[in-house]
């Protein structure tokens, strides 16, 4: 069943590397949505996909790409928006 998740990640996150890696992993797991950096430095992701694929994506979010340290991942369910791609957005 398709779901929508709102994800906020905090930690020591590289400026551009985390967002690009989040997009790559989303495509690997057939996730649509977007990623952006919040003004406070945290990463915000809206992700849609099948529940099993979202779980795999969340596993990656809890680790992040090489060179980052993830302190916390907050996940909330949201309403489906039927994204067709996964993009990097500005603030």
What features would you describe in this structure?
- There is one protein chain.
- The protein has 91 residues and is α+β, with helices and mostly antiparallel strands.
- It is built from 2 helices and 5 strands; from the N terminus they run E-H-E-E-H-E-E.
- Strand 2 and strand 3 form a beta hairpin.
Give a summary of the structure in a few sentences.
This protein has two helices and five strands.
Describe the structure using short key phrases.
single chain, 91 residues, alpha+beta, five-stranded mixed beta sheet, 2 helices, 5 strands, globular
Q: How does the major sheet shape up?
A: 5 strands, mixed
Q: What is the number of helices? A: 2
Strands in their spatial order, largest beta sheet:
4-1-3-2-5
The portion of residues forming beta strands comes to 35-45%
How many beta strands in the DSSP annotation? 5
Order of helices and strands: EHEEHEE
Distance between the termini: 30 Å
User: What is the molecular shape?
Assistant: globular
- The helical percent reads 25-40%
Low-confidence stretches: none
């Amino acid at each position: 069943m398709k779901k929508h998740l709102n994800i906020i990640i905090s930690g020591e996150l590289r400026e551009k590397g985390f967002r690009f890696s989040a997009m790559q992993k989303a495509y690997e797991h057939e996730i649509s949505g977007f990623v952006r950096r919040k003004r406070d430095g945290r990463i915000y992701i809206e992700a849609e996909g099948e529940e099993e694929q979202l779980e795999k994506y969340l596993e990656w979010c809890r680790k992040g790409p090489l060179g980052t340290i993830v302190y916390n991942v907050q996940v909330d369910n949201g309403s489906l928006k039927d994204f067709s791609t996964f993009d990097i957005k500005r603030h």
